[in-house]
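Researcher: Sequence recovery benchmark, item below. Answer with residues only.
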């Protein structure tokens, strides 16, 4: 994983930050629960240590109730990350994915 957070991670982080601003008792655990996912998984995704699965991406985009534009951006970002990872596995020198 690279150092620059992809758009889907930024969208998730923005939503988490918004919820914490609205309720200072809100936690990563509560966020993960609202998404129906494991807190450790969400933490790894937000810290750019694990790529998000396609299944989780669809679930998150539904549970965050994103507008159509953000939902498309979110899902395209996940797809781009998967494509880049696959290309790097085939030939590490082939592509620079911006990280």
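Model:
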């Amino acid at each position: 994983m690279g150092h620059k957070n992809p758009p889907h991670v930024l969208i998730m982080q923005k939503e988490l930050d918004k919820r914490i601003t609205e309720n200072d008792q809100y936690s990563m655990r509560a966020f993960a629960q609202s998404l129906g996912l494991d807190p450790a998984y969400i933490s790894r995704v937000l810290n750019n240590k694990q790529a998000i699965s396609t299944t989780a991406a669809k679930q998150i985009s539904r549970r965050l109730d994103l507008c159509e534009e953000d939902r498309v951006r979110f899902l395209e970002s996940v797809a781009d990350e998967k494509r880049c990872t696959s290309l790097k596995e085939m030939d590490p020198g082939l592509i620079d994915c911006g990280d």
